Amino acid sequence: MALPPPPRFDPTWAAAAPLVIGIAGGSGSGKTTVAEALVEAIDGVALIEHDSYYRHYPDLDFEARSKVNYDHPDSLETELLVEHLGRLRAGEAIRKPVYDFTRHLRSTEVVVVEPAPVVIVEGILVLADRSLREMMDLKIFVDTDPDLRLARRIERDIRERARTVESVLAQYLATVRPMHLEFVEPSKRHADIIIPGGFNVGAVATVIELIRARM
């Protein structure tokens, strides 16, 4: 089943506040794939990854930074993301942080994100924070089986983040799984839409049509 073609861009979007969409789900659930499918199918979408807002710990050495619980909500500067969403709603551009996962530090570079008719916020914990949820017009949770999520995480972290299988499994058992059960899974109750099984073409097509109807 093919996704619907994108609509023609309408420059009159700037007269109204953007539609803010949150996409959550466990690590490796496929939420990034869903977010990228929406970006591709709909013109005028700004994508913001919650992962970009990991806190900066330059005073800690690499070993200490490696031991930070990056799956806990406190590891993310969500208050800055909320501020940035407020600016985008007001028609202002933002300077989104760039996070270096190989060093566990923010880069000196930033990405300028211009106001857009649709803003997608993607991350494992985007539905776990009330102040962030209150910025959203539509909340989506991508629900995928744990074994598939773990397999995807191992593959991703080895390929993109210079990790070993041993380190990925150790982190999964120490923080990823416990934090998923404590924060991510319970946040599903806040979702307006639950997409089962990761990238579900029919569900994604439905979300696309819903977004277009509300633009």
Could you explain the architecture of this structure?
By secondary structure, the chain is α/β, with parallel strands linked by helices. It has a single domain, classed as Rossmann fold, CATH 3.40.50. Helices cover 38% and strands 20% of the residues. It has helices at residues 31-41, 62-66, 78-89, 130-133, 146-160, 165-184, 201-214; strands spanning 19-25, 45-49, 94-100, 105-113, 118-122, 138-143, 193-196. α5 packs across α6. The chain starts with 18 loop residues before the first strand and ends with a helix. 34% of the residues are buried. Mean pLDDT is 89; it is low at 1-15.
Largest sheet strand order? 2-5-1-6-7
Give the radius of gyration.
17 Å
Low-confidence stretches: 1-15
CATH superfamily grouping: P-loop containing nucleotide triphosphate hydrolases
State the end-to-end CA separation: 24 Å
